[in-house]
Write a structure and sequence with these properties.
alpha+beta; Glutaredoxin; elongated
């Protein structure tokens, strides 16, 4: 229940942050257009703009002066309001929180080896096992990395493209690290669960890691951030890596391995994995698409210990 409440809270922040930002953007556009309009009216209504304006001003000097002053005051007021709203957007707690989360997940701020507030590694190891999916690397490797991931998550894709190759080259291929994948499809990623189910169906035919890589590679071709795809795309990718199409499609359409995905979700909540990607290196938690150096610090420490 705590994790559900936490998720709803985060979703609420994102919802309000999105519409709050859009409101301010629309208001500033309106403000800019109105400013140009007032400026145009002010310039058009100047004495040199039309015949007889000077005589009109001389007849009613106070009225004409006050009208022009009103235009100037309105022009300045809208400019000031636009500036203040721009500052307000930058200090909106919801927007700040969302931006700080994104910055942390992209690895702009290097993580500590064991982040403050992370679960105790010994307690994690009492609950967390490797799961049922095949290992990447030698089963005898002394260091175990368990990843909770979402196939549609852009930060998970960043880890796959930027950090994973370095871990594989330096540690997996040398027999020092073994890696396991566990599912944590986030509710706001429409294709995350179908992707997870598809990977289970690929595992049925002995090609989990092949489809794992294919899904991330194909999304990388579609653009940056969260990209959209369809179930038909997944089925096409499965065929391209040599899976039996009929067997795979039937497996995916029937959600044959939904229980496996749900079980991984349940385990994630028990070890305080609430976002993706989340990693456990011999029980020590790393959250987000952190740089290779963050993983290296913990892996080397575990190898020395």
């Amino acid at each position: 229940m705590l994790n559900i409440a936490n998720y709803m809270h985060k979703s609420k922040i994102k919802f309000h942050s999105y519409y709050y930002t859009k409101y301010l953007q629309l208001y500033n556009c309106f403000n800019l257009l109105l400013t140009f309009f007032l400026f145009f009216v002010l310039m058009y209504d100047m004495p040199i703009a039309k015949k007889g304006s000077l005589s009109s001003i001389l007849k009613n000097p106070l009225q004409q002066l006050s009208m022009r002053l009103m235009y100037v005051v309105l022009l300045i007021a809208f400019l000031v309001i636009g500036y203040l709203l721009g500052k307000l957007e930058g200090t909106n707690p919801a927007v700040q929180g969302e931006n700080q989360t994104a910055a942390g997940q992209t690895g702009n701020t290097q993580a500590l080896p064991q982040e403050p507030g992370a679960p105790d590694p010994e307690e994690v190891l009492k609950t967390l096992d490797e799961g049922h999916l095949p290992v990447k690397g030698k089963a005898s490797a002394p260091v175990t990395i368990i990843e909770f991931s979402d196939f549609q998550c852009p930060f998970c894709r960043s880890f796959y493209t930027q950090t994973l190759p370095q871990i594989e080259k330096e540690y997996v291929e040398t027999g020092k690290v073994k890696m396991y994948y566990r599912h944590l499809p986030l509710a706001f990623h429409a294709q995350a669960r179908p992707f997870a189910l598809a990977s289970e169906c690929a595992n049925e035919q002995g090609k989990f890691w092949e489809l794992h890589d294919k899904i991330f590679d194909e999304q990388e071709k579609l653009g940056q951030g969260t990209v959209e795809s369809t179930v038909d795309d997944i089925k096409a990718w499965a065929s391209e890596i040599g899976l039996n199409a009929s067997q795979f499609n039937q497996c995916l359409d029937s959600e044959k391995y939904a229980e496996n995905v749900d079980n991984d979700n349940s385990v994630a909540s028990k070890v305080n994995a609430t976002g993706t990607p989340t990693f456990y290196i011999n029980g020590k938690q790393i959250v987000g698409a952190q740089p290779f150096s963050s993983f290296k610090a913990i892996i080397d420490q575990e190898l020395e210990g």
